[in-house]
Amino acid sequence: MSFHSLLNSIIDSQSVTKNSLINETGIDRSSFYQILSGKRIPTKDQITNIIRQLDISASDEMALYDAFYLERLGKTNYHYLKFTEKCLKVIGSPYMDADASNDQTSSESQETQESQNKQTDHPTDTDQSQAVSGTILYQSTDEIIIGLTEFMVQAGEKANNHLQVSLPFDLSSRVKLFAAIRPLIASGKFQNVTVSQILHFQTKDSNEIMEKLDGFAYLLESVLAKQTNITYNIYYYSNEQRVGQNSGVLFPFYIITDNACLLLNADASKGCLLTDPNLIGFMREEFASVFDHAEPFLSSFSQKDLPQFQAKSIPAEEVIFIQKHPGACLMVTDDLVEKYIPEDFKDTLKQHFHFMRQMNASEGITLDGIREFARNHVISESGFYVEADTQDIINALEQLKARLDRNLFVLDTEKIPVSDNWAFLLYPNQYALLVPNEELDFIICVSDPDIVHALTYTFHSVDFDDYILDTSLVRDEIQKLIDENRCGVADSTL
User: I need a labelling partner for 380 at 20 to 30 A (CA). Which of 115, 176, 209, 464 fits?
Assistant: First the structure.
C-alpha cells in the first residue's frame, strides 16, 4: 500500500477530523490535502506531527514510517537504510555478549540433540542409504543436519581443521551450518578452525544485490557469535546463471572437511556424504582453484595484524566510529600519553592517535557510555584501558561537549542498540571493520563494494539523524556529569 493510501486509511479509522488535524499540526490546508492525495510527500516533521495527533498502535506507526521512507527515498535507498539499521542491531544485540552467547550455544546444542533423538526414532535404512562403500545418502533436511553434525565431530578430532563451504545464505540457515559448528567449538573439540565459504551472486541484478545485503545481515549474526579460535574467509563469484531447483545441476552445493564431503541438492532436501580420500583431495583442489578467483566478501584476522592490514589498505580520507563509550583516539592528547602510558607503548600510541585525528573522523557513542566513562574514570579503546584522574575526565567531557557541533553524535539506543563488546568502523566506500574488546583476538573486515556502499549511503544520509539523540539533550547531560565530577574534586579537597 502506498504511503498516502495507508495514511488515508488510518485517518478514516480515527474519530479525529481532517480539519482538526490541519489545525493541530499547523500544516496548511492545500499541502495537507496534497499529501492525502499523493501529490506531495510530507517532510519528516509533518508526518511526525500527524502521527502525534493520531491514536494508533506501534505497528501502524512503524508501517506508516516505513511507507513514508520507501516513498521518499525510493526502493534502493530505503533498503540501504533498513539494511544498515539491521546490521547495527545485530552488532548491538545482547546475545552477542559472552553470557548470552553461551546461552545461544546451549540452546543450539539442545536443538542438535533433539534432532539426533528424532533420527533415532526414525532411523535411516543403512543398507539402502549406503549405496556404495564410502557413500551415505540423506533423504531429508533432518537427516542432512544429523549427518553434518556427525562428520563435523569427526573433523574436530584433528588439531587444525579447514572447512570448505559452498552454500547460499538461505541454505546456510536451513542446514544449520553455524549452529552445528558453534557447540563443537565451545566444547573444545575444535582447537583451531578455518571456514572458507564461497557465495554466488548475480551482481548485475539489483534484486540479487538486495539479496546479498539481506544475507549478509544473517551471516553477521553467525559470525559475531563465534568463539575465539575460528577464522572465517567468505568470498563470492558472479556470473549470469542462477542455480535453482530446475537448473539441471543435481548437487550444486557442498561442505568439505579433511575426511568427508557433504553434497547438497538445490533446496537442501537431499544430500550425499562422500568419504573416499582420493575424491576428497580432488574436491579440495577444485575448491581452492575457484576460491582463488573469487572476490572477498568477509574475512577475519588477528588484532596484531591490524597495522599490517591498514598499511596495505587505501589511505582513508574519512572514518566513522560506532561504539558504546567515547574512544581514546579522538580524545587522548600527548600529555595524557606521557602521563599514563608505559614507556614502551608511548611512541606507537602517539603515532596512532595523531593519524586518527588527522583524518576526517566522526564518532557515534551512547549516553550510557558517556555516563559510565564519566563515573568510572576509564578511557578505553579496543583493549586499551587507562584509569584517569578526575580533572582529566572533566577535560575529556568538555571535549565531548564541544565536539557535539562537529564530529560527535549520540545514538538513540531505543532504536539502535550498541554493543559493549564491539566497535564498528566504516571507511566510506572502502571497507568496514568490526573490532572487539580485548577478550577476543579477531577483527572482522567487510570489503564487498555493494555492502560498503549501502553503509556509506546511510551514514551520509540526513535520514540517519532519526537514530540520533537531540544535541541539546546530550549537552545538558554532559554538563551534569561535569558538575558531578567537579563536586567530587571539591569534596576531596575538604
Answer: 464
